[in-house]
């Protein structure tokens, strides 16, 4: 013992104090602060998303419209890349040296140890050649992905396409998607996105400091398996669809064919179309711009987005509505002196001097005078004030599915247009207007807008004699073949069945009587009932329209054909509809070859000069509706972004 | 008691040996966990845990050999040991292998000898012998200067390697001098120096100087009747001012960039989690993620997947913290405190000053390693590469600590004898 004995306690005290400081700090970081726990998980846990196969879309006979095709994304982990023959490598994957340097730098900046995408979607051919040499390039590997593939390149606008999600979509679906995921952008791909995408799986793996796989976390306790998306069975008939597309080559317009008894859309052609495979793969961006800049607007889905005044086919509706109102019947005769005189000195010309003509003949010969008189009776002589009578008329017309979107299973369907009474009251400054003020509605001209889909649906109503099912493109979902309930509900057009007889007889005569306006569309042994229309177009040649259903008894197909700038309905649209009907009902064409060749080879595109001259919009009381198809740029933007 | 009755282990302090074995066992299991690979057995001789087992066996043999020696041996030969280690420390500067920036190793076959580990032991012995002379007063200059020389020589050589960690261990021997009568002002001064060092690097010099001047003025006023105290305060102020300026100078002109960065990281002046701060950050994550009871033996993800570098050597405590949690950390720290207190207890019961002084030296060295190493892994100290005694992987380290401890146990077993 010496005199400094007590200092042992000070030294011991310091030792204990230091130990307590260490323990305090340890208690804090181990027990109190759980930040470190998260950091440790971030270090070692990687969530691998397992992408399910997207649902396949089949046609009504289970033929593939869209399927998945494997592609190969080239990935790189820059930290593992060794010295290599860069030029040889570039040659193998078909990129330039600067492109290689750029991609490599980008990957390096992202992370040395994590994989980044080096080159998107190598084709199967490139991959096959590259695969053998892959081992020479440590740090590079290939990841399988699947992209959409359209074996017959058909129905592009209706199937739609998928693309990488944007920020807005990520937000909208509340974190379901993350950057780089694919989502349906348009068409069926978009409207059935939630069914097609399936359920993603997650595999939790642990990695070491070099990001190497160290096996699954907790033996896969938190893993989920991917569930493939539902397959969709479309109502489209691929053969008919492709046949229609070939008929519409070099023409602008639409064909819509519906099965009246179900509302299933058999064919829906929007021309010009495009090859849906253009929207897949490395060239996608360029192709997209090409399509967007194409003056004929291939991205514009005409059957549901183009609105036309229906022209003479609207007479069918007026004939039915007038009968239901009781202002005419099958035996009502009007005299046609070659036109209809209205107001003080208004004159609506007719094609011929028809003389005394009844309802059936008025349809067959498309007599404007008859409908001028009919419309006048409905509006001016119904016992109501014309303004109110107009509203009643409008409501009855709207029951045909006009003026509102039909609710097809595609995004961006347009409503069409049928003006309200208020519209005219405002326009004429008071509500004392009569049928003389909007007489053009009697023959389907003027302020009307109807989509080709709505036209075809009207034919389905006539074929069914008074009702329709909502037209739709998907008839069954998944293995259980579920059909959406809304497509099984019968919608009534509010017209008694007996009123259809004279109209249908007239429509039959249009095609089958030698003096009918569409006699050239007649098919032996199939009774087509149809109606031609010629839509006045202030911007150029008139649009050719033809609507029809067939056969007359127990109808199987209702169809609308619009060919823009093609003149009379009978000239182009009726033969096209006729061929479509025969193709669908008989699966073969009995007409002579020249009949079809004329249609297949016709080029009815407007001349290039005309395209670049912006047509001036005339203020015209008869035709104030602007043709949507002539300025669809803004619409396309709406549907895509 | 007669010499004939004594066996090898007579009077041996079994508590210390028990603690020693506990720590070694903890080390061995955790080294296995740190390099864990499901395919390898813990005694696979090519793995670190297998090698460590060999080192443990060697260490135990050496321990027994020390117990067999005559306790006078250490007293007598301490100048020789000291001389040899000084020669080795010189030699390492010439023929040593440079590992991680430090020229600290002499390769002998597959074994790498680290002379600085043994220098601690030899210096402790010589220090004990020198101060143990009856009636020395350390406060006298003629005692203090040779003592400082004994300490300073190896420190100088080690700084030349440069190995700041080992140098720090030697500096910790100041507690021994304190126990033997060194003025407490040295301890207080040392503490103030550390404080000022940190403050100088964190805050502008001007503020620190102003605070110091105000503080001294206030204290001088309080003690205005005590002239002696005022003198102490004023000289303290002058020394502190000199220190502040020299720290500034050393930091800006003498420290190497990597050393500056390490200090900056601790002080929170920079944060660089990918670069220099990577080790510490990953180490903190490992320990912090252990929670209260840990992830379980061999279940530490940070440890298993190599996120913490050096984890079987300097960062072995990460494995303890991650797999055994706060409870494991508590037990390990508890064992060290128990061991240190036991060593001081042993030191104090020595009749001969040689044993007592040597005992304190052992306590200081172990304490310094234990504190600096653990503080480093949890981010309280800069990264200073010194091993955790008895636990860290490595032959040199285990062997030198064994020799250090068992020399004390041997001296203690013979404490009744007169040295």
From TrEMBL, chain A:
Protein's recorded name: Penicillin-binding protein 2
Database matches in InterPro entries: Beta-lactam/transpept, Beta-lactam/transpept-like, PBP_dimer, PBP_dimer_sf, PCN-bd_Tpept, Penicillin-binding_protein_2
An example molecular function term from Gene Ontology annotations: serine-type D-Ala-D-Ala carboxypeptidase activity
Annotated localization: Cell membrane; Membrane
Organism, scientific name: Pedobacter segetis
Keyword Cytoplasm: no
Name of one Pfam family that matches: Transpeptidase
Enzyme Commission number, as recorded: 3.4.16.4
Record keywords, A-Z: Carboxypeptidase, Cell inner membrane, Cell membrane, Cell shape, Cell wall biogenesis/degradation, Hydrolase, Membrane, Peptidoglycan synthesis, Protease, Transmembrane, Transmembrane helix
Membrane topology: Single-pass membrane protein
Domain of life: Bacteria
Record domain Penicillin-binding protein dimerisation: where: 50-212
Domain Penicillin-binding protein transpeptidase: start-end pairs: 253-578
Main location: membrane
Transmembrane regions listed in the UniProt entry: 9-28
UniProtKB/TrEMBL annotation, chain B:
Protein topology in the membrane: Multi-pass membrane protein
Subcellular location as annotated: Membrane
Keyword annotations of the record: Cell membrane, Cell shape, Cell wall biogenesis/degradation, Glycosyltransferase, Membrane, Peptidoglycan synthesis, Transferase, Transmembrane, Transmembrane helix
Entry superkingdom: Bacteria
Transmembrane segments: 12-33, 53-69, 74-95, 151-178, 185-201, 207-223, 230-251, 324-345, 357-384, 390-409
Any coiled-coil regions, as ranges: none
Main location: membrane
InterPro entries per UniProt: Cell_cycle_FtsW-rel_CS (IPR018365), FtsW/RodA (IPR001182), RodA/MrdB (IPR011923)
The protein's name in its UniProt record: Cell wall polymerase
Gene name tied to this protein: rodA
